[in-house]
Design goal:
Layout (H helix, E strand, L loop, with lengths): L9 H29 L1 H4 L8 H12 L2 H18 L9 H21 L11 H23 L14
């Protein structure tokens, strides 16, 4: 018996895209502004509360690999809106890397908890929070490889004393 092709839903795409765009807009307009006031030296490198990450984790948790397909249009749009004309160099490959890293992070937690990809209802909110942290770590490590592909010389690390 053949397995049916996965069902694509325009409604799911619209809801996930809207949630991602709203969370990204809130992050850019509110969270980044507050973070810049409180921690101006950190803001140029990292967002301490990246709201779209939660949308990514939930979409990939509930839709599996299809969540990546659902997130791709809105992620690309928001990358373009936030990075277009920026003075620093960013790569569009970071979109794919962060989405795949989130899928891998969830896969790690599924493997540890021995829960099937399709059995998303058996997770507690604590396990989902742990999955979000795992996705964040995997995403941070993989994006570091994308953005910082050069080796820091020893004298820059303060090891030349």
């Amino acid at each position: 018996m053949k397995k049916p092709l996965p069902h694509f839903s325009w409604l799911d795409l619209g809801v996930i895209s809207l949630a991602y765009i709203i969370s990204f807009s809130l992050m850019l307009g509110l969270v980044t502004s507050l973070q810049y006031i409180l921690l101006p030296e950190v803001t140029q490198y990292v967002s301490l509360l990246f709201l779209p990450h939660g949308v990514r984790v939930l979409a990939i948790h509930y839709y599996g690999w299809k969540g990546i397909v659902y997130l791709l249009p809105s992620s690309t749009l928001m990358w373009f809106v936030s990075k277009f004309g920026a003075a620093f160099n960013t790569f569009m490959i970071a979109i794919i890397v962060s989405l795949l890293a989130c899928y891998v992070g969830l896969g790690i937690i599924r493997w540890i908890t021995k829960v099937s990809e399709h059995d998303y209802q058996s997770w507690s909110w604590q396990v989902l929070l742990l999955a979000g942290a795992a996705c964040s770590i995997v995403s941070s490590l993989s994006l570091s490889f994308v953005h910082f592909d050069t080796v820091i010389p020893p004298e820059s690390k303060g090891l030349d004393k």
